[in-house]
Amino acid sequence: MNNQSDNTLVIVEGVAKVFHRGAEDIQVLADLHLKVPAGEFLALMGPSGSGKTTLLNLIGGLDRPSEGVVEVAGERLDQLSDRRLAAWRARHIGFVFQLYNLMPMLTAERNVELSLLLTHLSKAERKKHVDAALAVVGLLPRARHYPRTLSGGEQQRVGIARGIVTDPTLLLCDEPTGDLDRKAGDGILDLLQALNREHGKTIIMVTHDPHASARASRTLHLDKGQLSDEAVK
Amino acid sequence: MKFFQLIWSNLKRKKLRTSLTLLSIVVAFILFGFLSAVKQALVGGVELAGADRLVVRHKVSIIQLLPESYKARIERIPGVVLATHQTWFGGVYRDQKNFFMQNPVVPEEFLKMHPELVLPPDQTKAWLQTRTGAIVGRKTAERFHWKIGDKVPLRTPIWQKEDGSQTWEFDIVGIYDGKDKRMDTTALFFHYDYFDEARRGGKGQVGWYSIRVKDPGQAPEVARRVDEEFENSAAETKAEPEGAFIQGWANAIGNIVLIVAAILGAVFFTILLVAGNTMAQSVRERTGEWGVLKAIGYSNGQVVWLVLAESCLLTVLGGGLGLAVAWLMIARGDPTGGLLPTFLFPRRDVLVGLAISLALGLVAGIFPALQAMRLRVAEALRRM
Amino acid sequence: MAGPINWFSQIASITKFGLLSLPQRRGAVLAAMIGIAGVVSVLVGVLSIAAGFRQAMTVSGSPDRAIVLRSGAESEMVSGLGRDETRVIADAPGLARTAQGSLASAELFVIINLPKRTTGTDANVPLRGVGPAALQVRDKLRIEEGRMFERGKAEVIVGTGAAREFAGLETGSRIKVGRYEWPVVGVFSASGGVSESEIWTDAKVLQDAYHRGDSFQAVYAKLNSPGAFQEFKDSLTSNPQLTVKVVRQSDYYAEQSETVTRLITTLGVLIAFLMAMGAVFGALNTMYSAVSARTREIATLRALGFGGSAVIVSVMVESLLLALIGGAIGGALAYAAFNNFHTSTMNWQSFSQVTFAFRVTPALLVRGVVWASVIGLIGGLFPAMRAARLPIATALREL
Questions:
Q1: What is the biggest distance separating any 2 CA atoms in chain B, rounded to whole angstroms?
Q2: Which listed residue, of A171, B297, C65, C352, carries a Cα 20 to 30 Å from B40's Cα?
Q3: Is A82–B300 a contact, with Cβ atoms under 8 angstroms apart?
Q4: With b meaning 16 or more CB within 10 Å and e meaning fewer, what string describes B105-137?
């Protein structure tokens, strides 16, 4: 447990990731360095295949680096076992996916509750948190609706509510507006900005949309496994 | 259980598939219940045998008779508390199909020997006092709609009366039940005196003896002494504990247990296939969702648990329903119309059935569960 | 509207695509086939018990054979005939005759106890004393091993069924008969009939051993033709010296086995019915999965212009094919496992053992295949209709 004196939340150092596809080895990331302070709204941009999602997965503890160190909130993710990673994720990370990934047979509020089922909270306490999360995203009236009766934007809001209901340290968003029209997308970005500015949430967002990245406090570009501040022309 | 909603919602996902799987499980367990009843009817008697009773029959075959005079000699053998005899009457009621056991007995001794037979005191008294009186078990009484006071004719090919006829008349003076619900209540018992006096041939001869021993542990030893007593006489005996006697009878009917087990084995194997296939498909379709759950922080163990719980919910629901339906069907009575001595669903087998349904759920779900567990989160998410 | 030839070629194409995609769907397909195989084999197995029992009973009774018992006797057990009566019976018209006389065998039997091989517990075996003409009266008889017993000698031959079920009946061993020990000099077969469950000796020898004087229990006779039965029967029943009843051997055995046959048939039918229901549900389920795995592929074909009805037919053809293969496997399994499986059960008239073999008859196998086809057709119909009717766009999105 290393407690940094500055409030750096995420430290990525010398990280490489190689995928084995049959006989081929594909190097997606190589010698990557990144520091993310608490409270930042970071956008990761880059062409498809550049490894943005892979980097996001590594920070979120969904995958392990082939080389290097990944430390989040003082915890060395590359050293945790699968079981402990799962428990760690439950406590520290909220995910928002491009395709919302809601369970179609559960209502909105039950979808949001999924993360809380892993805690020891009582039924009443869980309901309180779920209602609070739905209120933040403005969907409390639609709590009992099934995903199929919600619009794309609404479904994504439910996804965000699910992501924040456990009050995670870090919110990771993978192309959150990728499947939405401009208006709905803007609504989502407004929400994310509010979460960052008013609630102090640290957000790392992967996107290929410059409109989305404009809302972030910092933007980094990823190309051929390398990070830079500027997009490669 | 807080995960119930999640598990249940997954089953509701493809309603048709779930219903069909459920229905085939239900049917399998109806069959299970049904076969349990048949097995109990054919071989269940062994469990109810008296631990402190022996049966003594003619060594060569139960068909051959023993002298009535043996009773006194048997009672003198050390270890013997009480001895009484019964004889095979072999009659039918009106039609050859209406077959059940009727035995002439010595009433007082008989009732003392078989306390598992429950007869109200007033009926006991009536029986002892009525020479042509007979007591009949409830199953047979209900089958032929006999009431106390009815006069019942029975025709037997084996025993002729002095007047040449082969039809004997009896007065129903009592209807008995068994202390244990599983007991056979199809037999009819009447007075030996009436029988012996009226029969033309075989006077003073009886079919077999029941003996009560003082100490059940001594039963085999007493049996040996009985056989020794009658060795080299005109009618040699074979004495054995009641349980062994009934078991021998059951074995003679056939290896019922084996056949039942074989049928059920095949049926459950097929169910396993069907349920396993359903679960495997169901899990495969939700690859992305497993990815999401794992991303949120559900551990491998929890994912396995969720799949197994879903599988078991399906099989236990189907099993429970099937057993309940079987129970109702069996309560309606013997489908063979009286050929079976009893027809009921033993409680123990109900519990076994439930246990099997749980086991089926576990076995059907284990491979899909492991598959879900092994999914790499990142890949699974990509496949949503 | 596609013309008929076009329609058939559509079906052929769709079916071909289906077969090509089989490897991908092999999980569901295998499950469907094995499920049907399992059901067919158990159904056939259970019904082969009844078929075998019936066979044992009917082989024993040819229409040109008659049994004479005392009038009023339900079975040989309780019948009794004196020697004079048997002589009168042997002289009656309608009987087949040889140089030695008419083919009538006056017989009696007793029950002896022997330990069953499978359980070790005792059960009853009939020991029958037969007349000189017995081998010709019961002419499906053959001495398989050893020799026929000699008349007047205290020796026995045993039926193959009895030899299989009970211990200690090999040629050369001795069996305990009452107080005596008699040698087994041969083994005989009777085409699976009831006699195979018995042990035979000379009638006179048995009478002496059991102090039966000169009495018998039945006369088994061979008629000179099946039609001669009425003549034979009438001459005996109208004779004031006799109080007998005359039955055809086939009728007699049918009656004797009625209880057991009824038990087995009732239970067998109930079991078969339940299994068939379970099979239909199971098959529907697995067929649905086998077919729904093709939904996207079928939707693609329909988008390309293949007709809905051609889809239905082709899916049902595949369904039927799977079911037939499953049914054939099931039938073969049943045959291998059950045919000629020997067992024995109790004859409720004499409480002795009757041996018989399970028989998987060609008729049963055909029935098995028919069930499998019906299950396949029913199981394939609904998924087929669904696949044909689903809006193409929806189907293309389905996983």
A1: 97
A2: C352
A3: yes
A4: bbbebbbebbeebebeeebbebbeebeebbbbb
Residues C113 and C82 in one domain: yes
Separation CA B56–CA B207 (nearest Å): 9
Rounded CA separation B71/C334 (Å): 53
**CB-CB: which of B3, B291, B298 is closest to A86?**
B298
**C51 and C93 together in one domain:** no
DSSP B102: E
> How distant is the Cα of A5 from the closest Cα of chain B, in angstroms?
29
Residues on chain B touching A105 (C-beta within 8 angstroms): 9-10, 12-13
How far apart, in Å, are the Cα atoms of B53 and each of B113, B241, B243, C106?
8, 6, 9, 42
Average pLDDT, rounded, for chain B: 87
Contact C99, C132 (CB under 8 A): no
Nearest CA in chain A to B11: A105
| C258-292 helix and B256-285 helix, angle to the nearest 10 degrees | 10
Q: What angle do CA A208, A34, A20 make, to 5 degrees?
A: 70
What's the predicted TM-score (pTM) here? 0.76
Q: A105, B298: Cβ pair inside 8 Å?
A: no
Q: Are A57 and B378 in contact (CB under 8 A)?
A: yes
In this structure, the dihedral spanned by the alpha carbons of residues C150, C154, C159 and C160, taken in order and rounded to 10 degrees, is -90
CB contact under 8 A, B9 and A106: yes
- Report pLDDT for C349: 67
Q: For A87-110, what is the mean pLDDT?
A: 88
Q: What is the DSSP string of C201-222?
A: EEHHHHHHHTT-TTEESEEEEE
For C77, name the nearest residue in chain B, comparing CA atoms only.
Answer: B158
Interface residue B367 vs chain C (CB under 8 A)? no
Query: Is residue A5 predicted with pLDDT exceeding 50?
Result: no
**% of chain A with per-residue pLDDT over 70:** 95
- Topology given in CATH for the domain delimited by A39-62+91-228: Rossmann fold (3.40.50)
Q: Which residues of C34-60 are buried (b: 16+ CB within 10 A; e: fewer)?
A: bbbbbbbbbbbbbbbbbbbbbbbbbbb
Q: Is B23 on the interface with C (CB under 8 A)?
A: yes
**Last residue in a domain, options B226, B253, B280:** B253
Domain boundary among C242, C272, C301: C242
Whether the pLDDT of residue A150 is over 90: the answer is yes
